[in-house]
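Task: sequence design from structure.
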């Protein structure tokens, strides 16, 4: 591998690593927002359960329907955060491979000296 070829490879590896880090940052931000939605949704359901205990019998069906809808929304949100977790895992693995590539480049450069 020539020095010029090594330079191009290094630039490519660093660009891929930078793109991957940007993806990791965005996914981390997204996961924070999604988990906030989960926490707020669970709190709303908790409030509905408390309300259900004290509401009139005629209102219980309405409150139960609201809770069912909120649980469905939480399930969708949980799937979102689950998908992001899998993507984070893939990006972390990708970062590990990129670090190995950088180590090889550094070893090659030291060997040239």
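Answer:
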């Amino acid at each position: 591998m020539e020095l010029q070829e090594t330079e191009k490879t290094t630039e490519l590896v660093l660009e891929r690593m930078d793109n991957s880090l940007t993806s990791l940052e965005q996914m981390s931000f997204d996961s924070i927002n999604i988990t906030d939605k989960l926490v707020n949704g669970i709190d709303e359901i908790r409030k509905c359960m408390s309300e259900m205990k004290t509401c009139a019998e005629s209102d219980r069906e309405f409150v139960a329907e609201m809770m069912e809808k909120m649980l469905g929304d939480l399930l969708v949100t949980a799937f979102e955060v689950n998908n992001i977790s899998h993507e984070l895992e893939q990006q972390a693995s990708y970062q590990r491979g990129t670090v190995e590539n950088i180590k090889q480049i550094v070893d090659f450069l030291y060997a040239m000296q």
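DSSP finds two helices and no strands in the chain.
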